[in-house]
Amino acid sequence: MEFWVHVLNFILLLSILGVSLNLLLGYAGLVSMAHGAFFGVGAYAAAIVSRDLGVPFPLTLVVAVAVTTAVAAAVTLPALRVYGEYLILLTLAFQMVIYGLMLSWTDLTAGRTGIAGIARPAVLGTPMTTPTQFLPLIAVLTAVAFAVAWRIGESPFGRVLKALRDDERATLAIGKSVLRYKVAVFAISGAFAGVAGGLFAHYQAFINPFSFTLDRSIFLVALVVLGGTANLLGTFVGAVLFVGLPEMLRFIQMRQDVVDAVRNVIFGGLLVLFMRFRPEGLVPEHSRLGRRRRPAPPPPDVSGAVVIARTARGDGATALVAQGLAKHFGGIRAAEDLSLTLPRGQVTALVGPNGAGKTTVFNLLTGFLPAETGTVTLEGRDVTRLAPWRAVRAGLARSFQDVRLFERMTVLDNVLVAIPDQPGERLGPLFFAPGRVARAERDNRERSLRYLAFVGLAQRASDVAGALSFGEQKLVALARLLATEADVLLLDEPASGVDPQWVARILGLIRQCAEAGRTVCLVEHNLEAVLAVADHAYFMEAGRIIAEGPPERLMADARLAEIYFGKGRR
Amino acid sequence: MSAAGADGAALLRVDALVTGYGAKQIVSGVSLDVRAGEVVCLMGHNGAGKTTLVKAVFGLLPVWQGSVSFDGDPIERTSSAERVRRGLALVPQERFVFADLSVAENLDLGAFSVTDARVAQERRDKVLALLPVLAERRRQLAGTLSGGEQRMLSLGMALMMRPRLLLLDEPSLGLSPLLVERIMATIERIVREERVTVLLVEQNVHQALSIADRVYIVRTGRLILEETAAAMAARGEWWDLF
Amino acid sequence: MNADLGLAAQLAANGLIAGSLYALLGVSWGLIFATTKIFHFAHALTLAVATYGAVLVVERAGLGLPLGFVAAAVVGCLFGLAIEVGVYRPLRRVNATQLNVFLASLGFLIAGESVLLILFGPEARALPGFAVEGIAVGPVAFTTIEALWIGASWALVLALMAWLRFTRWGRAIRAVASNPDLAQCVGVDRARVFVLVFAVGSTLAGIGGALIALRDTASPFMGVQPVLAAFIAVFLGGIGSIPGAIAGGLVLGLAENMGGLFLPGHWQGVIAFVVLFVVLVVRPSGLFGAR
């Protein structure tokens, strides 16, 4: 009996670690090969303060959490600049450094001997010694961990993490500080690992480096991936499988190292097979199991028109002025002495031959590329040096030629995530003002449905965005852009690559936005579309603006036609 | 150029082709043909699906529906390597040289499907004679060439394949007017001297019309017009087509 | 003073010995990574399996050591090919993400190591048959095995560089690494190039494993440490550059061994990773990378 309780305790401890990793890997899409090390940092922190300073139990756990959080946040500093294989390698290196220090920094860690005799926690004077006595403590903390992780994962905060996972650039473009979220999620993940590590140290009363190896990290990754990423129930299922199944193997008479090896063969093999046949894991992200039902279809009376009005940040006749912008790539001039003005409530177009630098202008205006010279003034405020997400918060947002929706999120969440200043994006209100968060969430949800109603896609709200047609995706991107509440909208080819009937619809919506007071600037190659929608146009060639005026007048200019269609020979 | 060289039989025939990226349908049922000896130009605004169409013809993208036949044989299920062996060559719109390799190595790669070193050598000499600017820079890394020289190199690589049908995707993109002129003149010479059939994607209408026999205009994945270059030139003004 | 200089010279020699092997392994992994973009963690398994091949041939079958090395090369080559064809190719067919391919590689590694353990037991095995002798050059002492490490590593690395530079398929590999789409345009069959780099890279890993077992031992988990060193060599040097991986391997070997002169003892085992950590933070493109 005690044995099975022990197994259960291990399942619970491992699922806390799994949750910790799932927040990173599943929600934020950030790989960590260092979770074994984080686990170890928590365990050693608790063990060392208990051994050397005589700190009593609940406090040791606090220390473990504090130290692990700090260490995990420190890892992010370089990790913020690296992703993909670099992040794999960086966390791998961190795992090896920590493990190496545990082995060889003997003054602190006692090396491979390990730390024994770690004080057992006592409740009401009775120390916990048996697994059964420990079970309530571990169970409660596991429940708390799951509750906290679920709260974070399903909150506006978690929604931004998923956006980050699906498309980092687009996350910046809806006004979210990617940096803040990355540091925060690493720190939270570290805190969870600290809880698991501290508990583990006290539960075992003995630790040595061999519990915190690279293998442990690899197993945690396997556990989370097999269970199902971005789904906490999946992580629990994974932990049960990973700890429970090998214990079943004990009933077959085998040596312990062979049992371990058989377990490794099974899980390693499963990992390979799952990647091929079921990469979403046992319990997939959008599974009905273990998660709230998706919203019911919107009430039929939802109308979009009310939400597109501008938020009245400024009132001058011009919303945005750019002066003397320049940018070079190597020897190539991408932009030179670019000056343009966007009149409030009007649609301005940038036209010109392919490669003239139109998208570069958008990148310069919104801070995605730093301008070498020149200034951008938005509502009288200098926004030239603002980071892209800050520019959005100041009221200047852009869309992308290739749409860049958050493909694994629902249509509704794509729009919802873009709404600024949600209280649930901050951890304080999330846990200490749940009423306010819930109210805001209800309002924002309704608001998002209105944006979707405006573009005519409210009935698709609960579909996964990646499953939509290209035309529909362009409309969702427009709704998402409007949801940022920016007054100045830069649209990069809003109508390209979609069927003619969609083009008309998109152009109509753009006109409506302008009439509601938003300022629009668009890059478009479909000249019919420009004629239909733009009040004013700038003509670009080779990084410069060479003419401006009403679109029909520009198109009547023989010189510009020559630039657009090329000069005749002979 | 005139259609005089054309013998009437289509060298390339595309029939009701549908294709795109991932789940995104870009080309929705395009049918066209290119007869041996012709220069045919594909025009249309950015995002209309020209590059996607050409990539599907060459086998870089799968054909979802419809067919592509070359010299009478269906090729829509063959690999690009197989299409190169049959006589197709593509010069892509961007990243059209191996930047980390030397000019000479780039050219040799153009003749990759030729296993006989002597044949490859002969072709290289001929290409270098045709494009002398490359001869001077044989040992230089292709990435260090100027934009115009890189374009010349990409044409040279295509010629190394001895193609019967050359697919050129916006060979003048990003070049100054003077260089556009030079590239077009080179293409014209290649067509004349090597008797290559060409399917050309080009934004520069005037330049394209000066070397093309026929024109197709694409808009949002469909053909909206087919006419001779002469008729197109006679319009004098093309805003409504783009 | 003199003693210090002598120590430094000895440590430098040790660094050169280790660095040569790192360079070989770095090149073997870097060739695969630069061409296929697969984070091929299971390279560690290839190394171990090939080394067991050598041990079986020499120890069990009683054939000579040269045949043991041939076995390491052949087994490594075939095993690497099997991973490419049996694991990675099916994943590419379903458009698996780079992360998922990496995870599959990881799974294959842990499963494979354990199969080795079940088949051959956990104990370390020697690769016998080499008459070890000491060599002393001035203050520096090393063994004939270490001389072989340096000689074999450099011979293989230089041969690989020449092959990539001067042969038709070598050029094709560089073409795919440089610009995969264009390589397809000129008729290079990507699948064949992938098979080729796995064959070549895995052969080198197999020989590297046998070299390691000559001085140290073979065990089921022997591959991970050397392959981690290979990752570091590649990233230090800058991805895609063979000379970079060689330089990265040498820097790593020297840093590990010379670091003892400046750092407290307990940092010795982690210097490699600290170096990598610092380089990734300060210069993510690698010490010799272009960007």
Kindly provide the name of the CATH class of chain B. Alpha Beta
Write the CATH homologous superfamily of chain B.
Answer: P-loop containing nucleotide triphosphate hydrolases
**Proportion in helices of chain B:** 25-40%
CATH topology of chain B: Rossmann fold
Oligomer: heterotrimer
Euclidean distance between termini CA atoms of chain C: 42 Å
Largest sheet: spatial strand order of chain C = 1-2
Rounded radius of gyration of chain B (Å): 17 Å
**Strand composition percent of chain B:** 25-35%
The computed structural class of chain B is alpha/beta
Q: How confident is the prediction overall: mean pLDDT of chain B?
A: 89
Our count of domains of chain C comes out at 1
Average predicted local confidence, pLDDT of chain C: 91
Radius of gyration of chain C using CA atoms only:
19 Å
Instruction: Note the overall shape of chain C.
Output: globular
At CATH level 2, the architecture of chain B is 3-Layer(aba) Sandwich
- CA distance, first residue to last residue of chain B: 25 Å
In short:
The complex is a heterotrimer of chains A (570), B (242) and C (291). Chain A is of the alpha/beta class and 570 residues long.
